[in-house]
Design goal:
two-stranded parallel sheet; 10% strand; disordered N terminus; 2 domains; 355 residues; alpha+beta; endopeptidase fold (from Nostoc punctiforme); 12 helices; five-stranded antiparallel β-sheet
Length: 355
């Protein structure tokens, strides 16, 4: 059955490492990551079994459609509200009872994880976990400005529910489940595929930045709440790429958003970031996860033009340039461009010593 297949996928995708830090057992608020201390198949945020299998299918559908992680969280939270992540048939739709299902409802002709009515499409599609999720993503991604909307507003704009404020309560559980399925663990203890940061505050900033991977670059875009509409650069590359019509981040805007999660105000301009967090760290061997990597065209502060957030292991998450999206780049210390332009890193973590 589809649920069994999805559960197998969950077992392969779920990466949760052990930890003695019980204070983090509930996960990090507002961050897409799994609570530590579990094992594959264990309940996450109160959901288990076929519910997690269905959530895995929703996340997999988003990945296939290249939907950003934020869209995946919105989709999972919506299904939590609509069906508690159970596949519903409907007693008023007799054909639905012949298809694989876990529970039976009776709300109009609504079926499936998202309680989609007949206007959404064929019954077989609405009662297939991955296919019905793709219907949801199609409408969400076509919604202008969805990236900057609160989760409940984005979900309501797609679902048109009679209870428009009900989705908000599911945001944190959805963060945890998407983190679990994606192999991102809140704790930095042990292995796993997520970034490692000894400083818990650095981990929060890193996860906030990573949660925006796939969001468009928009020159001048981004604030403490998330992506915003870009601005005109007077006919330069950003104008030619239409950045003023996009909702997204530029490189410093992504830093503003990442560090707002720990209450640190970062200037929305690269040279100002450099000036705000002196002294710099100029030895690459001393750069730690959560530090901001600064690039300069001439080796001097006046030439600083780009910033990215260091993840450790030679990896950086950044918003590169017009026409691109927020992304992770690997092996920067082996890159001629990054090593040539590197002027230093700055550390915005409060109460953290610099080398």
């Amino acid at each position: 059955m589809a649920a069994a297949t999805a559960m197998s996928a969950l077992m392969m995708l779920l990466v949760i490492v052990g930890s003695d830090d019980q204070a983090n057992a509930a996960g990090l608020s507002g961050v897409v990551c799994a609570p530590p201390g579990g094992a594959p198949g264990d309940p996450v945020a109160g959901f288990s079994g076929s519910q997690l299998a269905n959530a895995t299918a929703i996340v997999a559908a988003g990945a296939e459609m290249r939907a950003p992680q934020r869209a995946q969280v919105i989709a999972v939270a919506t299904a939590m509200q609509e069906s508690q992540l159970y596949m519903y048939a409907n007693s008023t739709v007799p054909e639905s009872l012949t298809l694989p299902h876990e529970r039976v409802g009776a709300d109009h002709d609504s079926v499936g994880l998202f309680q989609q009515r007949a206007s959404w499409g064929p019954l077989e599609i609405r009662m297939d976990a991955k296919a019905s999720a793709k219907l949801f993503y199609e409408k969400l991604l076509a919604l202008p400005g969805w990236e900057s909307m609160p989760l409940t507003q984005a979900a309501q704009s797609v679902q048109i529910s009679a209870f428009p404020d009900a989705y908000a309560r599911w945001e944190q559980p959805a963060n945890q489940i998407v983190g679990s399925v994606s192999g991102i663990v809140c704790s930095a203890v042990g292995g796993g595929s997520g970034p490692l940061a000894a400083n818990p505050q650095a981990q929060v900033a890193i996860q906030r930045a990573l949660s925006q991977v796939g969001i468009p670059y928009a020159w001048g875009g981004g604030d403490a709440q998330g992506p915003t509409r870009g601005i005109s650069d007077g006919g330069g590359p950003a104008d030619r790429a239409g950045d003023s019509r996009k909702v997204g981040f530029d490189c410093s805007g992504l830093m503003v958003y990442a560090f707002a999660g720990i209450g640190v105000t970062v200037p929305h301009q690269t040279q100002s970031i450099w000036a705000a967090f002196q002294p710099p760290i100029t030895d690459p061997h001393q750069v730690q996860p959560g530090d901001m990597i600064m690039l300069s065209s001439n080796g001097r502060p006046g030439g600083i033009h780009h910033v990215g957030l260091y993840l450790g292991g030679g990896r950086v998450v950044h918003a590169p340039e017009s026409g691109s999206t927020v992304q992770v780049v690997d092996n920067i210390w082996q890159s001629p461009y990054w090593t040539r332009e590197f002027i230093g890193a700055v550390r915005a973590m409060p109460n953290t010593a610099r080398p």
